[in-house]
Write a structure and sequence with these properties.
Helix content of chain B: over 70%
Bound molecules: adenosine-5'-diphosphate, magnesium ion
Strand content of chain B: under 5%
Low-confidence stretches of chain A: 254-264
Structural class of chain B: mainly alpha
CATH class of the largest domain in chain A: Alpha Beta
Mean pLDDT of chain B: 88
Mean pLDDT of chain A: 93
Shape of chain A: globular
Strand content of chain A: 15-25%
Helix content of chain A: 40-55%
Largest sheet of chain B: 2 strands, antiparallel
Number of helices of chain A: 11
Largest interface: A-B, 49 and 36 residues
Number of strands of chain B: 2
Number of helices of chain B: 15
Number of strands of chain A: 10
CATH superfamily of the largest domain in chain A: P-loop containing nucleotide triphosphate hydrolases
Structural class of chain A: alpha/beta
Distance between the termini of chain A: 27 Å
Strand order of the largest sheet of chain B: 1-2
Shape of chain B: globular
Oligomer: heterodimer
Amino acid sequence: MADSLLQCREVCVRFGGVQALSSVSCTVEKGTITSIIGPNGAGKTTLLNAVTGTVDPASGSILFAGEGLTGLPPHVRAGRGVLRTFQNLEIFTNMTVLENVMAGRHRMGRYGVLDAFFRTPRYRREERATRDAAMHALGFVGLESMALLPAGELAYGNQRLLEMARVIVAAPDLLLLDEPAAGLNMQETRQLGELIRRMRDELGITVALVEHDMELVMDVSDRILVLSFGAVLAEGTPLEIQRNPEVVAAYLGTDDEETTDGGA
Amino acid sequence: MIVSRLASGALLPVGAFLATMLAVPFLLPNPYYLSILSLACMNAITAVGLNMLLGFAGQISLGHAAFCGLAAYATGIATATYGLPMWGSFLLAIGLVALVALLVGMPTLKLTGHYLAMGTLGFGIIVYIVFNESIEWTGGPSGMVGIPRLALFGHELWEDTEYYHLVTGVLCLVLLLSLNLIHSRFGRALKAIHTSEKAAMCIGVDIARYKLFVFVLSAVYAGIAGFLYAHYLGFIAPSSFGFHVSVQLVVMVVLGGMCSVWGAVAGAFFLTMLPEFLRVFENVETLIYGGILVFCMMFMPQGIVGGIGTLFRVLRRSFRPEAVSAQTGEERNG
Ligand SMILES: Nc1ncnc2c1ncn2[C@@H]1O[C@H](COP(=O)(O)OP(=O)(O)O)[C@@H](O)[C@H]1O
Ligand SMILES: [Mg+2]
């Protein structure tokens, strides 16, 4: 447990009367893909929000690389390498595809306002590097031919990929993906699974994946956390989760046999 | 190659604009037109700043004329009443505007949407009342006279052409700096805030800080315009900095096209000159003015510059369908 990249300890989040998370403890190990599954309203997005800082837990603590994140604003957490994508796409539609990805590198920006005002060599060097990194990230997800299009003109599936490129370019240490396969067809979902695996293997990114598509989850996950009504129902490898009678009863339901076959 | 194109990217159009503006006095040696154009330049300076706030960062201000007024009165009082030198007065006026913008921006930028509009609206009205009521400082509603003409290196710019050159130069400088800023990580951060604050903070943008920064910057631009205005006319009155002027500035930005710095320039020139051209219509002047605004908003929702851009793209696409893919390939190699 010592080198867990992310540790949530007894995290509680309340919205008025709704207890969205009640004492959730979990860990994400470095270099793994950890999936978080559970029915709608289980608190999966809320857990991601608590980690990225857009929601304040009422109690509990969140440790990233051994340091507490509690109380830090989202942009500081992003600065430390905690990046995320969104369940409902949050593409910058007022920019081109390339600019979107370049914007994703904000946390690595070093030059100041005066450098920008006067286009100093420092500005030029960094902009060139940012542009190269952005093209590289677009190449990684296969969108480089669309670099100059307005982001809003991309098809839905490509917008999902663009959001991936926007976080890849920021070289995250921990990447939280909130239902990245939502709205994708079967083929796109398979490619996405491949992409997530490559992000772990080739880029060394630790991934926490919230996803409903069980085939995808069972396929790519190293470990799985099951949430139900804001609490942890189970935790383990894909195989363990598929064989856990509680999970099967509460969540996996009739899909059980099919996915067991696929996973085993 | 792309980098060199970027570097010259802003210089080229601004240079072309400057050349055009400098040619006008030769083509139109009419002091009346020159004074209208000078005023248009000053409005454009404010509008370019407001455009960064409104068009890029998506934050509305209904009190920007107050920042013009603060600088105008500050420099008026400093030079006419206390005889401060011009450069000292400039620093004082701009410093004051920046400070006030900082103090106003810190609480109001936490507000969003209508609340931000209301906050800045309230600020503008308060400043307007102060201009009217502190009679011993500002001369009250009847205004303040005897503000000296701007002097550069001991030379007073009495000639209208000289002043025209000055405001054109300042506008071009402001344009250049603004375009450079927009094409940097700061510009991208502002645009990010505009579409999704959630996504912006999650890529590491300190939203509060950037909003405050662009608010203060736009106020400083307004202050520069106010400073130039006071030393141009030599006379200022509160009505030049009231609510309707603030609204007019917003209309300039929206009408010109919010997605482009040039839109603010187009909007400022258009709205400053339009009433002068419409003067011949006498009684129905206001009616036609309103009609033109409605027409523009209906048929050019992207503003003047946006409308021209769309037209240009449509034309280019119909002539060169391969343009987009060729450009992308070039991008990849660059
Ligand atoms: N901003 C919010 N305000 C109020 N209630 C919220 C908010 N966000 C989430 N909730 C509630 O918290 C619970 C968990 O939501 P969420 O984390 O979005 O679930 P999931 O992502 O697992 O579908 C739900 O009951 C939801 O209605
Ligand atoms: Mg969710």
